[in-house]
């Protein structure tokens, strides 16, 4: 199982944000807990495209905890494959 963070840099106020997804909901939530992201921020829960939008400071923590860095294009490919297999 793997957690992924993309290289998006979307502005949200003064923060820059990216996406965090995982191969399973349990793994995604475990990483959120580990890096201090509240579970209430989970988006599209239970769907093929469930994810967190996380600040770049949290992205750094996720990578240090073992998350795999991917491009936005790679993340899109992962989500498309997931959608097609569900």
The number of helices is 3
Please report which band the strand proportion falls in: under 5%, 5-15%, 15-25%, 25-35%, 35-45% or over 45%: 15-25%
Molecular shape: globular
Please estimate the helix content. 25-40%
Give the oligomeric state: single chain
How far do the termini sit from each other?
Answer: 17 Å
Helix and strand run = EEEHEHEH
Question: What integer is the average pLDDT?
Answer: 95
Say how many strands there are.
Answer: 5
Unreliable segments of 5+ consecutive residues: none
Evaluate the radius of gyration.
Answer: 12 Å
Class from helix and strand fractions: alpha+beta
Taking the sheet with the most strands, its summary is: 5 strands, mixed
How would you characterize the overall build of this protein?
This protein is globular. The protein has helices at residues 25-35, 56-64, 72-85; strands at residues 3-5, 10-12, 15-22, 52-55, 68-69. Strands 1, 2, 3, 4 and 5 form a five-stranded mixed sheet that branches. The protein is built from three helices and five strands; from the N terminus they run βββαβαβα. It is of the alpha+beta class and 86 residues long.
Observed structural traits:
single chain, 86 residues, alpha+beta, five-stranded mixed sheet, 3 helices, globular
Describe the protein's topology:
Blueprint: E1 3-5, E2 10-12, E3 15-22, H1 25-35, E4 52-55, H2 56-64, E5 68-69, H3 72-85
What is shown here, in short?
By secondary structure, the protein is an alpha+beta fold.
